[in-house]
Amino acid sequence: MDTSLLVEADEADLVRLSGDLLAALRRSGGKLVTAESCTGGLVAALLTQHAGSSDVMEGGLVTYSNSMKQSVLGVRKDTLSAFGAVSAETVREMAVGALRIAQDATHSVAISGIAGPGGGSAEKPVGLVWFGTAVRGGEVLAEAKVFKGGRTDVRSQAARHALYLVRQRLS
């Protein structure tokens, strides 16, 4: 089977989804900021590949290490100690911290997970990704997904899901 066609289809899907999200942000008057760990800025890159994205894309923060999550986003050391970087509590604090930094943003999405191939455990397996979304003045939500495949697969599936979650919050 020629897997290059699948990769191209996935990339085309991500381009379409990111373009759709930008259009939805424009219609709603919203602006987005991302706080990414395991995706390493992939969500921000998907959005900013579109010309004119700066009218609704406020910025992207890649906070891969725990110390960066703390110093940049304001994630509490106690949160990381008690729950770990890959947790509902951490992504909620990441999402809130991103909104604090990007004062013109109306929405944020935060992503932290275990892309693999190592680093997983029975409690937190490889492929586990937590997502946090926040709306300025609104509720902060968190949800987890477990994605299958290698590191690249987990990261691209996580980016796709993050785009979906923000789109859902706009509805």
Automatic annotation (TrEMBL):
Pfam families, A to Z: CinA
CinA C-terminal domain ranges (all copies): 20-169
InterPro entries: CinA-like_C, CinA_C
Listed name of the protein: Nicotinamide-nucleotide amidohydrolase family protein
Lineage: Bacteria, Pseudomonadati, Pseudomonadota, Alphaproteobacteria, Acetobacterales
